[in-house]
Design goal:
This protein is α+β, with helices and mostly antiparallel strands. It has a domain of 175 residues: Protein Transport Mog1p, Chain A. The chain contains 17 helices and 21 strands. The strands form five sheets. It has a seven-stranded antiparallel sheet, sandwiched between helices. Strands 11, 12, 13, 16, 17, 18 and 19 form a seven-stranded antiparallel sheet that branches. A hairpin with a 3-residue loop joins strand 17 and strand 18. Helix 11 packs parallel to helix 13.
Amino acid sequence: MSARHFVRLALVSHALVAVIVAPSVANSQSRNDHVYVDHLYGWSVSYPDNWTIDTLDQAFVQIHQPSTLPYGLVGIHSARALKGASLGDFADRMMANEADMAGFKVLSRRSTTLSDGTPALEIDDVMGTDLVGESRKLFVLRGDRGLVVDAETYRDSFPALAPFFEKILGSFGLVAPTTHALILGVPFIGWGDAARLDYHDKNILNPSVPASLGMMLEYWGLDRHLVEHSLEAPQGWTSASSEGGTIDSVRSYVARGIPIMVMLAMTPAAHQAEPTAAAMASLIGSGEISPGTNLTQSQLQHVQDLTSTNAGFGSGILGKMVSADTLRHWGEVLGQPIWQETVFEPARVAIGFDDDRQVVILHDPSFGPAWDVSYNDFETMWRLFDHNFTALFPVDLTRRSSGHPSAAPYAPRTPSQHAAESFVFGYALASVGHLVEAKARLNAGLNAADVPAGYHHLFLLELGRVAQASGDTALAASEYQQAATLMPQHHRAWLFLSQLYEHSSRPEWRAESGKLRKKAEGLCRDVEARSTVRRSLPHDFTMMGCEGLLPPS
């Protein structure tokens, strides 16, 4: 068994993430020892001058022996969300996987304390048959945080390394953990600004992705225009991408001054659906078509009509939005993750967190800088994309040119950015039938100060749809008429008004319906009118035009 293989076996019980702690043995600290303090998880440790420490992952800090000594490793793991577990239960849970391995045997299990009196449990064990490993582990619980210190090597080497292990473990102590952090000086790049860049796959990649990558690059002193050549990390940089991230992943990077890109659903309530996939899944679900069969001409026409309703002439400006559960169900029906359509994948940059306020702080290309999102909403939005995150940073973390504690506070979000959030969230709530909440959110946006004309139009348009869905025909007509007055070139106000009139009990409205629809159709054929609408509407998120998806710029 190789040394690397043994380490994997010895650490397998910590797959849930734990933290390293130290016994109450009082060892003197050498003048040449190094001290490392982890403010994120709240612990400190010292280690000999010629040993090295790897702190890239603060949830698993590693201390390695010099080449002059036999192989050995001290791993310090950190975990949260362990409320209610006793110290013994925690240790048993973390040791469960090792206990099933060949040759595993507990040599000793004893209660101890850290130097500050914090209770701890120390366990010595061996594992393996041909090459036998030996480790000394220390388990500590502190509130909702679990800590595990694991010092390990081959059994034949343990006597030589034991004095070093004992000294490192004995130095371990607890400090007050960081409960909040905000990286200052991360440049903000908006969705519309990024859409003007000439990056690869521009028509199928959401501009929030190059915007987020550009923010990280500029934070470290490079130019956003590098994304026009490549969306990969610059040569020689560290690139850490992963699915399965947690709030602790965010804390770990942000606490060290490293912003990270996170892929999140558009809102907690609903996310944009790829229109053709949504149409196919809906018709399969209704039994009208069967999966894997060729479509008849009639079925194909129905798919095209429904696609236009989802994203095109007959759709709302954001197209079809549905809940994450619906997207996953449709993915199962179609046999593919339809929510991972790159044009509908919004990226944001995490720049801070605050445990007291229970928020993650994001630079959102659509909604503005330093946007607070509750832990619950963040988790809901992140879950759709399997908790995916990406960190890009140079090996030398001191090279950042703009981010530093003395940087100016972030500018307040603009009225346009607040309007973007209110509109998208209101639209999403209406899409899943939460009409009361949607109306409140949209009205709040409409009545805010300094609302741009484009958003004023969109708020009225969507409030009309909410009123229509709620059965308030008079209010819906009024909202549509006001929207049409503000932007007469936009076909949707006339189209929605025609649809409302078509089903009205008032003869004069029904008579007017056909004329209004023809007006809407004519506007969609009018190149100048469409160009005017494109210029007048906001450029903060992916939108639908007369024939489907609008280009980002």
